[in-house]
Design brief:
By secondary structure, the chain is mainly beta. The longest helix has 6 residues, at 258-263. It is globular. The two termini are 34 Å apart.
């Protein structure tokens, strides 16, 4: 019997072998036994779904390594915008899901090394992602994302680097316009080759980032640490320990009206007046155990726990808080503890035809202590904002989910395969109000949501290099704690009437290998009932409502090509028609209107000369069509095209390596809105992007050979 080492796909929580490839590599002959497995990226060609894989090396090539928005423009269907506001995170949506989010990431499941960056309620963030240590990013769109449970308009799965020989240490830095400075250290290595008991691999990375910000009152500071330690227990099992920590302080410049934007895009009148800002501290750890039970069976267990502290000062006038006894104040002081476990078993065998089964159970819970305070104090008749005042809110929120799942793959013929899965997702929410006064009653409440989430696909291999597929699935999205926290009528208490949305997605696609690249195309439609949308965004606070029926339909095309050895070309185009099918407006009929926050057309192209050593250079261009800013479609952000250039030099000298580069972004100094605040009060929809800006970077590495 021959014994080999296999590589496999490593996916969080729900492991999807039928979508992202089998747990272990297919044996070349029946006498081959797979005894070990290490993470790798997914197969874009063989996956019967719209999935894109971006390598960490590409993400770090001549980039600041600060935000995901720098390097994911080549992913079709993904709209990722930098708000120029580190207090509110990136604005990120997949096929329009998540576009309504006024802060953080909504409608999309995110994972880092199997640990959710999305809480059980569906609210996520990117602040804890260290670009310096990313191995790859998988972006899954379409029906199969529903199998990840709540808020799965799409899935972003991030793998960090696994240490290997030889041991390497790297120091990197970047300095750019507006006082932007990032510097970090990374160490990777391994003892042994990973196949023997006692072998160890490690990867440790730390980063510090500071900026004055393009706009007034938009400075930020972030410290980030990431570590992964793998231990080979024996020939068939491995233990991996994962740690992540982030500490961030950021000012919040807020949105501008169109006139304010035109007069001075860098101003922050509410930020200066109210001293709006946010502080975040988050620490989490996880442990993953992988074991091969037999030639046909694998077991994986993932456990994690973390805590998150956040304090935010909002731009809410003192009169608004004083005049309403039920108002929860202008300061949010929150502590969260969260943990989870996912256990899954995979079996590969035959039932007349080759078949793979994966079944598992996922449990997550989160407890939150949420306090509210006035954002002002009065001294000698003078109101001072940006200071924590009297308490106005005190509640404890609990949210948890319990999801069993099953997925199968049937290889009917050499060319035809069928894949099907189902997840039963249950989410519970419970709130206990501890702030009760004569004019502010008990606002405790609870809710639960349950939904069957099926998905299926058929793939046909026309040739070894060309696959066609069709897929369908059902997803759902519950309200987050933040969306439940405020009622649109201005009264206190929870917005318990807010219901989860459900959607049905249909997709057909084609994937073709062309030389050293791949051409992909997908045609899709998603119909949603009870879409959760922004009701009003006013004075730093957002309320939500259900919007009846919506439809998203469109086309995604992408080309990733390498030719003549060192030339690289990436192109992507997305057409997305997202509209309301029922009325969501109070005083006018909005049925048929475009959904706000979603571009109808997006384009991306990059072209560069990228040898392993010596001079390199490249250019990229991004296009985004106009974006509606409100449900009535009476305000919009204009379309724009921006161009970036980069050049640098790579040098390898013995055990040393060096990469020095410079770049310019927004080469033609285009004035545009980097993001939009949907349905913002007082028409303050716009968050302006910087004009022409520059940066230089340097990384130096040493290999202990």
């Amino acid at each position: 019997m021959k014994i080999i080492t296999a590589r496999r796909v490593s996916l969080p929580l729900l492991f999807v072998p039928v979508v992202f490839g089998p747990l272990s590599a297919m044996a070349a002959d029946e006498q081959t036994l797979i005894v070990s497995a290490t993470p790798q990226t997914v197969s874009e060609l063989d996956t019967p779904a719209a999935v894109s894989v971006v390598s960490g090396d590409d993400m770090r090539h001549a980039t600041p390594r600060i935000n995901l928005s720098e390097s994911l423009g080549s992913v079709p269907g993904l709209q990722i915008q930098n708000r120029q506001n580190y207090a509110q995170d990136l604005q990120l949506s997949v096929r329009g899901f998540g576009a309504r989010s006024t802060f953080g990431v909504r409608g999309i499941r995110m994972y880092v090394d199997g640990i959710p960056a999305t809480m059980p309620d569906g609210q996520g963030q990117t602040s804890n992602i260290d670009l310096n240590s990313i191995e790859s990013v998988d972006v899954l769109r379409g029906p199969f994302s529903a199998l990840y449970g709540n808020a799965s308009g799409g899935v972003i799965n991030i793998h960090t680097q696994t240490g290997q020989q030889p041991a390497t240490i790297e120091a990197s830095s970047y300095y750019g316009s507006y006082g932007t400075w990032r510097y970090g250290m990374k160490a990777t290595g391994a003892v042994g080759d990973g196949t023997q008991a006692g072998d160890v691999d490690y990867a440790v990375s730390t980063t510090r980032f500071t900026t004055h910000g393009y706009r007034d009152h938009s400075g930020a500071r972030k410290n980030l640490a990431n570590a992964k330690l793998g231990v080979r227990i024996d020939d068939v099992s491995k233990l991996t320990l994962i740690f992540n920590s982030v500490d961030m302080k950021a000012n919040d410049p807020g949105g501008l009206s169109y006139q304010e934007w035109q007069n001075n895009p860098r101003q922050s009148p509410r930020g200066d007046q109210y001293n709006t800002r946010k502080t975040i501290k988050q620490t989490q750890a996880g442990i993953r155990y992988d074991r091969q039970l037999s030639e046909q069976d694998d077991l994986s267990v993932m456990m994690y726990a973390g805590e998150r502290e956040m304090t935010q000062y909002q731009s809410i006038p003192a009169s608004t808080q004083r005049d309403n006894p039920a108002h929860s104040g202008g300061v949010i002081d929150m502590q969260r503890h969260y943990q989870g476990i996912d256990t899954r078993w995979t079996h590969r065998g035959e039932l007349l035809v080759p078949v793979t089964f994966t079944t598992g159970l996922n449990y997550e819970n989160m407890s939150e202590n949420r306090l509210g305070y006035e954002n002002f104090v009065v001294n000698n008749g003078v109101t001072d904002y940006g200071v924590k005042g009297d308490k106005r809110r005190d509640e404890r929120n609990l949210m948890w989910n319990f999801d069993p799942y099953l997925q199968t793959q049937w290889q009917l013929t050499q060319k035809l395969s069928v894949e099907a899965g189902v997840r039963y997702s249950s989410v519970w929410f419970d709130s206990n109000d501890h702030y009760i006064t004569p004019k502010n009653g008990d606002d405790s409440g609870d809710a639960s949501y349950h939904k069957w989430l099926p998905a299926g696909a058929v793939k046909y291999a026309v040739t070894d290099a060309w696959n066609l597929y069709a897929a369908a699935g059902r997803g759902f999205e519950t309200p987050t704690i933040n969306e439940l926290s405020y009622r649109s009528d201005g009264k206190g208490g929870l917005n318990i009437n807010l219901q989860p949305s459900t959607n049905n997605t249909y997709e057909i696609g084609s994937k073709t290998r062309i030389g050293n690249g791949i051409l992909t195309a997908a045609l899709f439609r998603t119909d949603t009932d009870n879409e959760i949308v922004v009701d009003e965004n006013k004075e730093g606070r957002t309320t939500y409502k259900n919007a009846g029926k919506t439809r998203r339909q469109g086309v995604e095309i992408a080309l990733d090509q390498q030719f003549a050895e060192n030339w690289k070309l990436k192109m992507a185009w997305t057409y997305l028609d997202a509209t309301y099918r029922t009325n969501v407006c109070n005083n006018t009929d909005c049925s048929g209107n475009r959904m706000p926050g979603i571009a109808r057309n997006m384009g991306y192209a990059s072209f560069g000369w990228e040898p392993e050593e010596g001079w390199y250079a490249g250019a990229d261009a991004r296009y985004m069509s106009d974006v509606m800013a409100n449900d009535t479609n009476t305000a919009k952000a204009p379309s724009y095209t921006v161009v970036g250039l980069n050049t640098g030099y790579k040098l390898n000298y013995g055990k040393w390596g060096m990469d020095l580069f410079g770049r310019v972004d927004n080469l033609f100094d285009k004035e545009y809105a980097g993001s939009e605040i949907v349905n913002a009060g007082y028409n303050r929809y716009y968050e302006p992007a910087p004009g022409r800006n520059y940066g230089v970077g340097l990384s130096v590495s040493y290999r202990f050979e």
